[in-house]
Structure formats: structure tokens, C-alpha cells
Write the C-alpha cells for this entry.
Amino acid sequence: MKLAEFDIWMRRAADAVETALQAWVPADAPAGLGLAMRYGVLDGGKRVRPLLVLAAAQAVHGAPSAAMRAACAVELIHAYSLVHDDMPCMDNDVLRRGKPTVHVQFGEAQAMLAGDALQALAFEVLTPDDDPAMPAPLQARLCSLLARSAGHAGMAGGQAIDLASVGRQLDEQALSDMHRRKTGALLRASVLMGAACGTTNPREWQSLAEYGDAIGLAFQVVDDILDVTQASATLGKTAGKDIDNNKPTYVTVLGLDAAHAHAEALRRAAHAALDGSGMADTEQLRELADRVVARES
Amino acid sequence: MKLAEFDIWMRRAADAVETALQAWVPADAPAGLGLAMRYGVLDGGKRVRPLLVLAAAQAVHGAPSAAMRAACAVELIHAYSLVHDDMPCMDNDVLRRGKPTVHVQFGEAQAMLAGDALQALAFEVLTPDDDPAMPAPLQARLCSLLARSAGHAGMAGGQAIDLASVGRQLDEQALSDMHRRKTGALLRASVLMGAACGTTNPREWQSLAEYGDAIGLAFQVVDDILDVTQASATLGKTAGKDIDNNKPTYVTVLGLDAAHAHAEALRRAAHAALDGSGMADTEQLRELADRVVARES
């Protein structure tokens, strides 16, 4: 795939996700709740998770409208986690995607409720009454994958480890365990939810699971690198905060050069997983792996 | 049904819910998260919502093991909402079910994560891989009902109205709109999730929906009455806090006598809904309606 072609696919896909989220995140939820929810999720972010869902669905020829629901559901979970993570009792961050964070804009109580409602909305989007592309077994499968990646064994569990690790030394294995849960689980689920829209073939499923594991960890390694090498303005969020917060990262544990090498090894592992899959249309997934590692914000 | 017989049913059902929650809420979630989750949900509460699920499932002869999953999922959502609601940025309450609240015991960050993980766990419990009593269409239906009752159009939306109503006068209609969302939606969903375990008959469904509406509102009217007539020790939570927080309640809007009369009218409406249903086994539902209105804590 030529780079320009991929860029066009990526822009179109991200625009379609934005349009779908615009429609599904309610402006008219009571007492300003809808405004806080929309502020937390619309018009921002790289949409990496939705792009992974859509690319994986494309690789297995899944129904596009089912994939779009899965893509938005994952992004809603991601968005809620950022809203809660930024709150004073967690990371106490005031800047996200170049804008004041939700609790700064709407107050802490509304931010907590908006996060809670975004999580529920993810499961609403996955369980439509009237979408022929979403038969009940697919709805149930997607809810199962999403709930498990978001909950105690996935993202929320990883955040609990993260909280407990402030100011502590972790070895590489403990760090990777934390990140496989905290960010990896939802990125992996993105790939698998896309896969669920089109395949039950165990070989394809296994390949996509391996791809998802590699990309999930690569994303975090690169995040840790960018936290020390980029300015806040480039990131759209507060740079250097892991070090300021005395949190262990891949850079503090491995050093900067080894962290770069680790990200590159994971990129290759993601490609290798697809090589063995027997699937033809994996160009978007390959290119996404390259972009996740090469990104500068 | 004789009273003693109902008391035995209720105790057995509540014990079975406790046993199921003990098994499903993980003790081993990382970094203390499991302990905070368990503290927030186990060994406390009247289990009104699970009892409504189980009683409704019994009325439509639903599979008991499916009903138990639905019952626990609803209670997990209820428990997460209490954990978040008690936090300093919301009601700032230190006492719940006679114990220190979760954030007092485990810190605010862990309390927020525990609430988040309890919400995800509700959807995990509804989407098992290996339970023959839970075919995919039932899983999808239950996820749909639960997500919609918990989210922006239901509980979270009602809480946003509640936040915005502090210190304001509401008329009875605005108050009832708030409570239909804040507490009514999840109580109604409890009844409907029980119904989904056994029936697709429109007449039965409609009757149970009407019963659920009535009981949902009755519960809140009685809550408002108890807030002014009972001591904290009896309630197991801080009494008088609605008035202290300058929140509109059925007692402030209607007066105490009219609030009592309103609760009684709703109890009768719940019974009347069942009278027209054609269902035989509605004794537990009837008795639960009576208990919700007659309770003293």
C-alpha cells in the first residue's frame, strides 16, 4: 500500500468515527451531562483504537457498520478512562488533547458522572435493537471482549497497579504486566473486536491476538519515550509527567536506546503475527503498527 | 403467600445472591483493587434490586442461573453508583451500610477505580462463555437493558439532575422525572431483566414494566420519608442529609402526609399492574412491593 493511499484511508476512517460518535454521544442528556460527555470524547485524539478495530474488521471482511459500533464503543471506554484518570484524585491533570480537562471545564462531580455514563454508553452502542449487521451473538461477543478488557483484569486493574507503583522501582516484567493491562488490554481488544465482526477462524483469531498484544505494548513503550522526548505542545498533554510523578516507565527501566529497540522489536513482532495469518487484507494493520511506533505525538 | 414463607424465600434469595457475588467479585484483582471492589459490594445492603430480578424471573419461570447473573449484574451497577456517589466531589459521605465508605477506607483514587471496575464487571457477569442458561440473545438483551438504565438516559442522567437541583425548588413533575432516572430506571430494569430471563409475551412484559415503574418511584418516595423520620443508626447511612444538602425531596415538595399517601398509591399501582398480567406466580413481586413501602430502613 502506498503511503498516500493509507493516509486517505486513515483520514476517512477517523472522520467516519467522528461522525458516528457525534450521533451517538447525546447532546441532550440532562443537566449538562451530555455536554460534558461530548467534550470528553468528540473532536480530539488520534483514534488509534477505532482505527485498529476498523483495520482488523477489514482484514476479516467484517460488516462495516458492526465494526463502526465496535470502534466507537472502544473509543468511549478509552475516553471515559481519560476523564477519570485526569481527575485530581488520580493524575490531577489540567490539559488533554490541547484543551482543559473535563473536570476543569465542568467540575469534578460532572466529570465523574460523564465518565460513568460514557462507560455505559459503550455497551449501549454495542446492543442496538434494530441493526441487522449486529446479530445477538455478535453483540454478546463484543460486550464480553470490551467488558473484560476494561475491567479489573484489564484497564482498571492496570491503573490500580499504576497507582501503587508511584515512587517504586519495577523490573521490566512488572512494568510490562502493568502496561499489558493498563493500555495493552484495550488495544488488544480493539483488534479482537474488529476480528469478531468477521471471523471465527482460530488461526486468524490467534494471529490477530498476537498482533494486538505486540501493538498494545509497543504503544505504551512509545508513549513512555515521547513523555521524555517531546514538549507538551506537541503531545497536547502535559509532557514529563511520568518523571515528575516519579512513575516507573520503559525509559527509566530500560534506558532510552533500549526502549527504542524494544518498540522496534514489537513492531516486527506485529508484522510477523500477520505474516502467519493467511489473511490477505492486512495492509492497514501493518501500516498502523508502523505508525504507532514512528509517531511523534 | 404467608409472611413466614416469604421471609424464608427472601432470606434464601439474598443468601444466594451473596454467595454468587462472593464468587464473581475477584479477591485477586491487582494492587488492592479487588479488596476495594469487594468492600463496596459484599456483606451489605438490602439487595432490593436482585430480589426484584429473582422475583420477576420466578413470575415468568425464567432459568434461575440466568436470573442470578442478572441479579448480580444489577447489584454491581448499584454498588458502583454508591461508591462514586459517596465520594467527596459528590455527596462526600463517610458512612454507608453502617461502615466507612470505600474512599474513606481505601482512598479516593482506588474508590473511583473500584466503581469503574464494578461497572465493567456487571457486563462481564452478563456475558459468560460457558453458561447454557445464557444463550447469546439473552446476554445481548440483558446488556442492553442494563446499559440503558445505568447511563445518561437513566441513573447517571438522574444524578446529573440531582447535582444541578441542589438549593433549587422543583415541582412534583421535575422531582419525579429526576427520580425516575436516578433510582427508578435501575429498579425498573431489575424487573425487566428478570422478565427477559423467561418471557417475550408483550402483555406480561407490559405488566412488569408498569410494576417496575411504580415500585421504582415508590422506593424513592419512601427513601425521602425515611431520610427525615429515621436516625442514621437505623438507616446505616447518614440521615437527614437531603435537608442538610438543601436537596428537594418528596417530603419537602409534597409534605410528609402526602408523601405517605403517594407511596401507598404507588404500592397499589404495582399490585394493579400484576392483576392485569395473566401471570400466576406473582406473590413475591406483590410482597416485595408491600415491603418496599412498609420498610423502616
Observations:
- The two ends of chain A are 23 Å apart (CA to CA).
- The first helix of chain A runs from residue 3 to 24.
- Chain A touches chain B through 57 residues (CB under 8 Å).
